[in-house]
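Purpose: get a first structural picture of the assembly so the mutagenesis plan has something to point at.
Setup: two entries, given in the order below. No constraints added.
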Amino acid sequence: MKVALERDWCIGAGNCALTAPAVFDQDPDDAVVVLLDESPPETERAAVEQAIGRCPAAVIRLLS
Amino acid sequence: MLLPVPEEEVRPFDPPPVYAELRKGPQVVRVACPTGIDAWLVSDYAGVREVLGDGRRFSTRPGQAAHVLSGFGAGDGEPVEGSFAQTDGPEHIRIRRNFAPQVSHARRLAELRPMVERITDEAITRMLASPQPYLLHSQFSTAITTAVIAELIGVPPDRHHLLHDAATALFTTSTKPGELRTALEPLWRYLYELIATRRARPGDDVLSRMIELSADSDRPLTDAELTAMNGALLIAGFDTTASMITYGLVCLWNTPGQWERLCAEPGLAVTATEELVRYLAAGTGLLRQAVEDTQVHGQPIRAGDYVVVALQSGNRDPGLHADGDTFDVARKPGPHLGFGHGAHACVGQQIARLELTAVLRALARRVPALHPAVPLEQLEWKKDSVVRGPVELPVRWS
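Result (structure tokens, whole complex):
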């Protein structure tokens, strides 16, 4: 599994960090998404898919 | 056709039945709105998500509720400087990123939780020491959400009435253009003074942190921007959440077995919160304006056309949940449109979740015998507001 971000359009809603905290964090200065693991283990797939669905700005993509 | 509007006295928790028909197609139809504009109405989950998710095609410039709020005067006049809800693109993101660390950063939310829980507990203790019936909406729901948002921004209790007056004017459908600015002026003037005070003597509140954070950027926030942002946070931050607490409890009490389930397992407050926001999403919908000639579900939409997206209808789309018309306090949380979607999704959504969860959990633990003091059919519903729910909710406990 590979995860990619478009940080330019992130609005810092925080849903990803709350849904999949092992994969996503937020920058303390602007709350913009930070990718902790661009190739997370398969066990995180459901959480990452949830995060994608709950991201209002649609800036998270699953590449594989 | 006319824009279908909620009729809570007929069906307290559901959108008008016409939406179920519209979702089967055509999902995009022409409607006449209460404020006199015509718009395309989008009723299904995918369509709503498409419109809200694409700010490059669909602008928020006319104001998110100008189809139902006369005070916005859709299409006339320029938005006030810093009114981020009517700004699109990179400029909107710049403003929003000054907000986000204060209200939607996971670590910040963890810091705020004790404050929200303390205010909730104090409100319950106050209620339990009061005579019955107790007016839950004004004395409990509104008191809690006002205290939280005011403490967040550092507005003292003797100024809370400014928020209430401003919210009344802003969310009331009969407020006329021109009246709105006059009605908001006292709060705006107070915030200007507060900003000057905080620039001189910073504290640990949201306003001081915003000033400090933006001072380091290449374009620090102006006083007008700070006023508009904090004013919006103060107004939208208490009324919407208070109404959801009150409306949510009525829904829990009137859906068989749901309140009992929550009381047996107060940890369900987390899923109950998400489900209430999904189920009771703003029935009046949100407004957008097409920037270019485009289409949704094959329906051509011309540049300049207004588009209304039906949030509550979208949330009931069988494509999202086969049993979407069922309220289930333990439903596994997933994507929904209750906080909107796209770049303008509710900026206070994490604070709202924090408050709703804290209130539901504490009530389920401390006052499981809480119940309405009047039958459902005797409740008066807010009619002239975009923030829906009961006008008041008398309650009892034993």
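Chain A touches chain B at residues 8-9, 11-14, 17-18, 21, 25-26, 28-32, 50, 53-54, 56-58 (CB under 8 Å).
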